[in-house]
Design brief:
CATH architecture of the largest domain: 2-Layer Sandwich
Order of helices and strands: EEEHEEHHEE
Largest sheet: 4 strands, mixed
Helix content: 25-40%
Shape: globular
Number of strands: 7
Length: 159
Amino acid sequence: MSGTASVEVRWAGEGRFDATRTAGSPSMRLDSSGETGPSPVDGLLAALASCVSVDVVEILTKRRTPPSSYTVHVRGDRVDTIPRRLERVTLGFVIAGDGIERVHAERAIDLAVNKYCSVRDSLREDIPVEWTLTIDGENPERTTSGSATSGSAAGDARA
C-alpha cells in the first residue's frame, strides 16, 4: 500500500462537496450547512472516531471478544474566533459484547487513541482528545475516562 492518501473533491453547488477516492468509488457528501451531509468539521470528527474505532474493534476481536454493538458519540468543542478550529474533542464509547472486560476495552481505546490512529496524530498537538467508556449493560455511572495530547503516550484511566 502506498504511503500517500489521495481523494478528489468535487463541488456540488452551494456549500456542498462530494469526496471520492477513485472514479466510481462511493462518495461522501460534505455540506457546510449540514443539510445534505455532515459539515467538514463533522467529517473530521467522524474520520477521527472511525480511525480510532477500526483499531479498537480489531484489538477486541483479536482478543476473541468482538463487539456485538459499538457506538462512539463524538463532541468537538470549537473556539469562538475565526477560524473556528477545534480546541477539544471528546469520544464517548459505548461497547457491548460477550466477554468484553473493561480493562481490555480501556487498553484497546488507549492504544488506538495514543498510538495507532493516524487521524489523531494529524491533529494539532494542542488539541486534547478525551474519551469515556461505558460497557453496555453496566451502571451508567461506571464510566472510565482518559485523555491524550497528540504525540503523547500517556493515558489517564479513572474508574
